[in-house]
UniProtKB/TrEMBL annotation:
One GO location term (cellular component): extracellular region
Record protein name field: EGF-like domain-containing protein
Annotated compartments: Cytoplasm; Secreted
Secreted found in the keyword field: yes
SUPFAM superfamilies assigned: EGF/Laminin
Keyword terms, alphabetized: Calcium, Cytoplasm, Disulfide bond, EGF-like domain, Glycoprotein, Repeat, Secreted, Signal
EGF-like domain residues: 21-57, 62-98, 100-146, 148-191, 193-229, 231-267, 269-305
Organism per entry: Mytilus galloprovincialis
Endpoints of the signal sequence: none
Main location: cytoplasm
Length: 319
């Protein structure tokens, strides 16, 4: 590690903080499958059974003796200075390769670099004797959870699996997938049929009726349109009788009747004599239009309201 905090990654054959030292084990000076351990310009050869010497170049004359291999868990035994030494697999350590390495705690070596984030994409590392396993989240796979699972690829499983069913299109993404659902289908896997009337598309108290994958709005008499949101001009159908004037309203209409008629459609005759329009004991007769008054003697006018000046007729004789 340099003082700047940077670290040099050396090419093969070179070691040291700045890659300035030639690796004495680069060309493997040890013969007969001996293992080289180097440090700066020095190296040692650990020889397999049957060989000895600084370079494992000499046959071992004791090869015929019985040698008990003390190395466990697949470790290989080597000689060095007449001593037995175990070369352990990377998952084991200890003098006899008897101790399990906790990779989840200490990390693993990849290309001479210690990796502590073993399980990627939030996978959980579980230490086991002689190794580790990664418990991956859904959507990730392989030894270190480094590979995205294409959930949309049905060929990945023996039994055909269609995550979005037959009513959706599957779109894969890193560690996940999403479904683009067809009309009237919803849900994470497009497995829930949508009732098109759930959104109350029909206005003004209209009735929504399911029609296959769509809907139809049954409008009240005063409305029209796909969603019953367009006013129906009822005056086009002349609903007002007896010369009543039709006035269109939003979702409705009204009739302005003449004086002689009343009712929703001006269909009821108004009794003009009900208000007693004839004065001075005149007799009222209902008629169209309006009414007529039969006045008593001495009165005249439309409503018998005018005194009749009988003197104008000179009723008095002999002056």
């Amino acid at each position: 590690m340099l003082s700047t905090g940077l670290k040099c990654v050396c090419k093969l054959g070179w070691i040291g903080d700045t890659c300035e030292v030639r690796d004495p084990c680069f060309n493997n000076p040890c013969n007969n499958s001996g293992i080289c351990f180097g440090n700066s310009n020095r190296f040692l050869c650990y020889c397999p059974v049957g060989w000895k010497g600084s370079l494992c170049e000499l046959p071992d004359d004791t090869v015929g003796r019985t040698v008990l291999n003390p190395c466990k868990n697949g470790g290989h035994v080597f000689y060095h200075n007449e001593n037995l030494i175990c070369s352990c697999p990377k998952e084991w350590t200890g003098p006899n390769c008897e101790q399990d390495k906790d990779e989840c705690k200490n990390g693993i070596s990849i290309n001479d670099t210690i990796i502590t984030d073993i399980c990627q994409n939030n996978g959980r590392c579980i230490n086991i004797p002689g190794g580790f396993v990664c418990a991956c989240h859904d959507g990730w796979a392989e030894n270190r959870c480094e590979t995205d699972v294409n959930e949309c690829d049905s060929s990945l499983v023996k039994i055909k699996y269609v995550p979005c069913g037959i009513h959706g299109q599957c779109n894969n993404s890193d560690g996940n997938f999403s479904c683009m659902c067809d009309n009237v289908w919803s849900g994470n896997k497009c497995d829930r049929r949508v009732d098109p009337c759930d959104t109350s598309p029909c206005r003004n108290n209209a009735t929504c009726v399911i029609n296959g994958d769509e809907y139809i709005c049954q409008c009240l008499s005063n409305w029209k349109g796909i969603h019953c949101d367009e006013d129906e001009d009822e005056c086009l159908f002349h609903p007002c009788e007896n010369n009543g004037l039709c006035v269109n309203l939003q979702g409705n209409y009204s009739c302005n009747c003449t004086d002689d008629w009343t009712g929703r459609h001006c269909e009821e005759r108004v009794d003009s004599c009900q208000s007693i329009p004839c004065f001075n004991d005149g007799t009222c007769f209902d008629s169209l239009p309006g009414y007529t008054c039969n006045c008593k003697q001495g009165w005249t006018g439309e409503s018998c309201q005018t005194d009749n000046n009988e003197c104008l007729l000179s009723p008095c004789s002999n002056n």
